[in-house]
Amino acid sequence: MSDLPHCPSCGSTYTYDDGLQYVCPECGHEWSREAGSDAAEEGPAVRDANGNPLADGDTVTVVKDLKVKGSSLVVKVGTRVKNIRLVEGDHDIDCKVDGIGPMKLKSQFVKKA
Which residues form the Protein YjdM C-terminal domain (predicted)? Predict the structure, then answer.
């Protein structure tokens, strides 16, 4: 069993050591040894629609009208959501939207305020 890290781009287990960096033969992604060890310690970072990293307690703004599943409510563009909490899963933001209540959002539909 290899002790090399998985590819941060595609998650492949077939990475190999190429001197000062690691290389993924499946997607062609290359990263330094330092970046590989930092990513393993830090875990997956949640990023907004613009690529900015998000953290617990941040305030975000919705960038697209979002229909609330199971109701006729809509979260409008520009709605500010305060004090988010990051969670694992497809919908990686847990929050409370004013006028709607608690819900989960995908980070690709918000930007950091």
Answer: 46-113
